[in-house]
Write a structure and sequence with these properties.
This protein has about 240 residues and is α/β, with parallel strands linked by helices. It has one domain: Vaccinia Virus protein VP39 (Rossmann fold, 3-Layer(aba) Sandwich), CATH 3.40.50.150. It is about 45% helix and about 20% strand. The chain has nine helices and seven strands, in the order H-H-H-E-H-E-H-E-E-H-E-H-H-H-E-E. The chain has a seven-stranded mixed beta sheet with strand order 3-2-1-4-5-7-6, with helices on both faces. Strand 2, helix 5 and strand 3 form a beta-alpha-beta unit. Helix 3 crosses helix 4. The radius of gyration is 17 Å and the shape is globular.
C-alpha cells in the first residue's frame, strides 16, 4: 500500500488526513500551478457529462476545498451539494471559499470518511469524486459504499489521474511527475512527502479497464471511461440500475 509517510505506523486513512491538513493552505495554489490550470478544464469537462442526468442532490466525495462541488453548482444548478472529507484543514479552506462565493447555502461541507458514509441507502442522484479514490485505504470498499448511497437510476462520476501511453508524452509526464512536482510541492507546501506521494499513488492505481472492473464489482453498470489530455486524466462514469 502506497502511503505518504513511510516512516510512520499510522494507517493510510490517518496519513492522508494528516497530509492534506499539512498542505491545505497552499493546496489550491499548487493545483493551479502544477497542472498549469488544466485541472480546472478537467473538472468542467467531467461535470458537463452529467448535464443530461440533471441531478438535484449531489454527494462530492473527498471534496477537499470544494472545487468540484462549485463546478457542479455552476453547470448543473442542483438543489444541494454535500461534500465530505477526512481533512479538517481542507474543509476549513473550503468553507471559507463557499462563503466568499456566496454558495454556502447550496454547498455544505462535512467531515466524513469516504469509505464509511453516514447517509441512508439510495440518497443521492449523483456521487462525484475528483482525484480522491486513489487515496482510499480500501478502493473497492469505498466504491461499494458510494454505490450504496447512490439512488437507483443515479450516476457516479470519478475523475482520476491515469498514465499516458504515447511514448514521448509518457516520458515527459513521468519526468515532470517524479522530479518537478515533488520539488515545487516541497518548496511551497513545506511537506516533504506529500508531492512525492502523488506520482507513487498514480503508479499504483488500477487505471483504465482495470479500474472499470473494480467499479463494476462495487455494483455500477453501464460503465465507461473518457481519457483527457493524452490520457493524463480519465473520467469514469457508472450507473446504478433503476
Amino acid at each position: 500500500m502506497v502511503v505518504p509517510y513511510k516512516e510512520k505506523d499510522q494507517g493510510k486513512r490517518e496519513q492522508i488526513a494528516e497530509m492534506f491538513d499539512n498542505i491545505s493552505p497552499k493546496y489550491d495554489l499548487l493545483n493551479r500551478l502544477l497542472s498549469v490550470g488544466v485541472d480546472v478544464w478537467w473538472r468542467k469537462k467531467a461535470i458537463s457529462m452529467l448535464r443530461s442526468a440533471k441531478p438535484k442532490l449531489i454527494l462530492d466525495i473527498a471534496t477537499g476545498t470544494g472545487d468540484l462541488a462549485v463546478e457542479a453548482v455552476k453547470q448543473l444548478k442542483p438543489e444541494k451539494v454535500i461534500g465530505v472529507d477526512i481533512s479538517e484543514g481542507m474543509l476549513a479552506m473550503g468553507r471559507e471559499k463557499m462563503q466568499k462565493l456566496g454558495l454556502d447555502d447550496v454547498i455544505e461541507l462535512r467531515s466524513g470518511d469516504s469509505e464509511k458514509l453516514l447517509f441512508e441507502n439510495n440518497t443521492f442522484d449523483a456521487v462525484i469524486v475528483s482525484f480522491g479514490v486513489r487515496n482510499f485505504e480500501n478502493l473497492e470498499k469505498g466504491l461499494t459504499d458510494m454505490y450504496r448511497v447512490t439512488k437507483e437510476g443515479g450516476t457516479c462520476l470519478i475523475i482520476e489521474f491515469s498514465k499516458p501511453k504515447a511514448p514521448i508524452i509518457k516520458q515527459l509526464y513521468w519526468f515532470y511527475n517524479s522530479t518537478i512536482i515533488p520539488l515545487i510541492g516541497k518548496i511551497i507546501s513545506k511537506d516533504n512527502a506529500a508531492y512525492s506521494y502523488l506520482p507513487e499513488s498514480v503508479k499504483a492505481f488500477p487505471e483504465g479497464e482495470d479500474f472499470l472492473r473494480v467499479f463494476e464489482r462495487a455494483g455500477y453498470s453501464d460503465t465507461r471511461r473518457v481519457p483527457l489530455t493524452f490520457g493524463i486524466c480519465t473520467v469514469y462514469i457508472g450507473k446504478k440500475k433503476a
